[in-house]
Each structure stands twice: as structure tokens, then as C-alpha cells.
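Exercise 7 asks you to align residues with C-alpha cells for two separate proteins.
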Amino acid sequence: MELTELKSAWQELDRKVEVAAQLNVRLARELHLDRTRNSLTRFKRTLGIELATAIPPILIAGSYASAHWAQITAQPLGGLPVLMLFGLSLTTIILSIRQLVTLSEIDYSGSVTSIQRALANLQLSRTKWTLGTFCIVLTGWMAFLVLVAQMLIGYEVYRKFGGPWLIGNFAFGLAVSAIVFLCQKPILESPRFQKFMADPRLAEACDHLHNLEAFVREDSA
């Protein structure tokens, strides 16, 4: 075999190896993106459930407020649980819709980095919301107790236990919320905490993209 033929054979072999490598990357991309889509599809169902479960409380709170508006205006403290329930439910509805819109705008034909960035922002947003909801519920759980007892059995809890009990629980919730607020930066920067607080299916989708990025980096090395 002459030198020219040998060079041509090597060039053809290099071309085939390059085509095979590109094919492997394409197949790996399709595989991991399919897994990402499946995880996000399950995550969308979770958002749908959150959206559906937030609608009845907001209707109940609105109905109760309209029926007892005179009493609420006369005793604003008694109307606080209704306003908290209404606000929390409304915020849940708004955020669930925004997250569904964000997921629908993801372009799977684009770069992996852009998809990762969108999911990372979504994961951080859900972590902040979950953390904020925890603080709100911890601070105002007695307010929800007052509302539920009054709506279901007409029992006025705040009159039974008195103001010091309500103020003490409220102060405890504020203290814990203040600690969480002061420590939020290291908490929010922890990947493990984000996976725990955001959603397992969303974390699973992020892991699939991370594996794809690692495969592409290793293949191109």
C-alpha cells in the first residue's frame, strides 16, 4: 500500500470515528433529554395538584369573608386567619401557573446549559417558596386553628386561650422565621437542601442534565 493510500485510509478511519462519536453524543443527548422530559412531566402533575388544592381554600376564605365581613371589620384580629389563608392560596395559584409556563417555554432543541439554567432558577424559586411557606405556617398556625375551629364548630379559640397564648405562639414563629431569614444564604446555596425542599422530580430532571453534561465533557476530552 502506497503512502497516499495509507493516508487516505487513516483519514477515512478518523472520519468514521468522529461520526461514531457524534452519534454517541446525539444518542446520549436524546436519552437524557427523554428522561428529563419524563421527570418534568411528573413534576407538572405535582404543580397541577398544587394548583387544584389551592382553589378550594381561596373560595372558602372568600365566602367566609363575605358572609362575616361586618364581624371581620369590627374585630380585625379575628379576620387575620381568613386573610392569611386567602393570601397563601392565591400566591400558590400564581406561582404554580408561573412554573407551568416556565416549563412549557423550555426549548429541548437548545443547549443543555440553557435548560439547566431554567431548571436551576425554577428549583431556587421553589426552594424559596417552600421555605417562606414554612415560616408563614409556623408563625400563623394558631391563626389557621382559630379559623378552622370557628368555621367548623363555631368555637372561638382565641377567647378560650386568651391573648398571651396567641402572642406567645406568634412570637415563637417570628423568632424561628428570623433565624431562617438570617441563615437563608447558606441554606439556599446548598444543592442537597434545594433537592429536598424543591421537588424530587425536579431534582431528578436536573440530575439527568448534569449526567448529560458530564458525558459530553468526557467524550470531548
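Second protein for Exercise 7:
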Amino acid sequence: MARRADFAPAGDTVHACGRPPFGAGVISFIAATITDPLSIKRVPVPEDVALADSLEALFQRIGCAQTDSDLHALLTADLSISQFKCLITLAREEHPIPIHDLAERLRLSLATAGRTIDRLVAQELVIRREDPDDRRVRRVSVSAKGRHLITGIDEAHRTALVAFVRSLAAADQARLQAALLPIIRPTPLLEEQLA
């Protein structure tokens, strides 16, 4: 069976994991296929869309290694996707939150969130306590063991980023750094938006 990579229009990018990029790149590919299925040509796109395609390909290439580290963490800790999402969400909180709040944020039913928390509590990754002001409410937070796991995942993400940078030629590293610095440098507008 023909693969996406076999019919990639000239200049198009195939995901580093073997998957095609999403968004405008795929749309232009489909449009070209419909127009001329035997001789696919690159459909001209505006510069901003071309840049978006390039950024998407870059993020996906970096994301491949990070996804691998996440999958390794899931397998090592014996976590489901739902459990992993709960753990990550709780790790962002400074204080324990009610289970129903967690369910709303993750768009889970209260019953599903409750079962997920049950498993995390059994693995000692999450602490569940009764709300002192309302005994009907249960509040949850990440345990020390859970935070240790999250820290390991963060370090794996960092390692994946460093590995990606080291895979680039020195000249490409310098060009990427020069291009990114003006974009990521804090600006008054950004600081105002974050305030």
C-alpha cells in the first residue's frame, strides 16, 4: 500500500516519527492529490502558512523523542493515559483540589475521575484527604513519590531536547538560537499579558 511519504509533494515535510504533519501541509497535499493524482505538485502557500508548516514539523520532530520518554514513563510506572493526565494536572497545583474540579478540567465523568484517583492513591502517587470544611468533598494532591515521578519525566523531556540540539550541525544550532532569541526574549507586552 502506498504511504504518505511516497506521495509527499516537493518541499512537503513528513513527520520524523513517520506520520505526516497536520494542518495546512496536509490540506495542500489533499488539494494537490485531487487536482492531479498522478503528478502531485506543491500548491503555493503564503509565507506565514509555510512558516507554520515548518514550525509544526520542528515541534513534531522534537515531540517524537519526548513522546518516547513519556511512553517509557507510563510503562515503567504502570500508568494509563488518564492516570498520567491526572498526575500532570495535579502536579501544577499548589494546593489540593476537589476531585470534581479535576474531573471538569480533564473532561472526565466524576465516576471515571474517582476510579482513576483510586488507582493513583493505591500506587501512592496521589494523596486524597477529606475537605476540612465539607466532609462530602475529597481533595487530592500529588504525593512526594508522584512529584519524584514527574521530575523524572521533566528531566527526560530536557534530555530529549538536548539530544535533538546535539543532532544539529553547529552552524544550524547557531542559526536556530539566533532566530529564537528575539522571539522568546520577554517583552513589555508579554509581561503585561502574563501579569
